[in-house]
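pasting for ref. prot 1 ->
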Amino acid sequence: MNAAQVEALRAALAPTGWVERTSEFAGSLRRRATRSHGLLIVGTPAWEPWHMTAHLADEARLAGLPDLAPTLVRWAPPAGAPPHLSVGIERLDQAGAAQTLLVVSPGPAPDELLEHVADAKRAGTAIFALDQGDNELDGIAHEALRVLPAQAPVTFDGAQHLVSLAVAGRCERPPSPVPPHARRLAARAQLARLLDRITGPDTRP
């Protein structure tokens, strides 16, 4: 996403409070993930956060913040997968105080995932959750960002992009003055269309 697109997104979202919400969440994540290979990201057995992992890696590289480059943890990596795509779920069993775990879940986290996350928390891992309103997962997480489908002005996919941008500091500055045409875009449906053009279609199940 180029600078003009980032500015347009920030301007459109300025009246909604979502720039601030994602910036606070991402800022906490950035302050905690200070060790190389220390940021782990995991989804559910049925859904892997490919796009967010890729965007976080890109933003970390562009910002010169290698400690924020995430490791994608997969439930069943296929044989012969390249090293960066072959980290299995057992990696969570080895997590400790040196790691930060970001759980990205578009639906209710299954019991097996909750158990792994709870074990990692007991071992000292900092837990962050990005979900669509999962009380059990949020109850385990140290910090959670809930993207409620009926209330949030962004899609779940759009929220992942916002967090990735804010982690690298690209969505953290106070918004520019919002012109009248941008204020009219504050309606949820219009914002969703803008985000779809910039970040891709909604991946909400």
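and prot 2 ->
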Amino acid sequence: MSIRLGYLLPTREVVMRGQPEAGPLLDLAERAETIGFDSVWVGDSLLARPRHEPLTLLAGIAGRTKKVELGTAVLLPTLRNPVIMAHQVATLDQISQGRVILGVGIAADVSAIRAEFAAAGVPFEKRVGRMMEGLRLCKALWSGAPVDWDGRWPVQQGVLAPRPHRPGGPPIWGGGSAPAARVRTGRHFDGWFPTGPDAAGWAEQWAGVKDSAKEAGRNPDDLVGAVYLTLAINDDAAKAQQQVDTFMEEYYGASAKVLAKHQATYAGGEAGCSDWLRGYADTGATHMVLRFAGEHEKHMDVIAKIRASLGW
């Protein structure tokens, strides 16, 4: 089984530190490709968790790299007009020559994100239906054929150009591990991309995603099983755990213990990390996107060493 490893750029973290320059982020993306990562990922938020705009930044990364896939972890399509988004994504896919993966989600129901939706002029209610209709419209436009659309965004004989480099557009992965999100992924998306749970829980939920795909008349083997993981590698396990806890609490403004119930994290030495990652691979995950709780260059090197030892 081929295991792919992705690297999440610290776009939120550098803004929090008051160092928003894009150059170092582009350097990290280029280094990730050089060291052997298969994909580079960027998060999304307008005002709730300020960071670089993901599609714009990925276009810059596309110009600096040749092979790595370029993903959103995750994009919030509901905040965007889908006609404009379809154009942006198609152009990005052309720039990267078909390396784009769209991880998508609906965002958590918290006050800061509700305020973000209001600021963007988008109703928070019915955001699932809005996202799904918007993605269907994107796919219709990506076909290159004239589109008539009688819905939230009326289109009359609209023809989008350029079309994406990849026929039909980039693969779409659904984020979220809630039951409805898993069913939605199985029925409509090309991959599943949650932030947890542990390997055993992931395996159980992944089986449900595949069952939903089968019930919808799809081939479940066509879906990609992915997972978004946060980690700190240090031989001093207590220091590593403190690093993860501090990172999570500063990032989300919530208790690390509460966050740990919803997001998979690892803190400890190299050997334990190797076993932890292999646990996900053994249960069917084929693409793991790694978010480091600081010390990015060091963690890249350690992961490259672990990967070599695992034969991935």
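The longest strand covers residues 224-233.
The mean pLDDT is 97.
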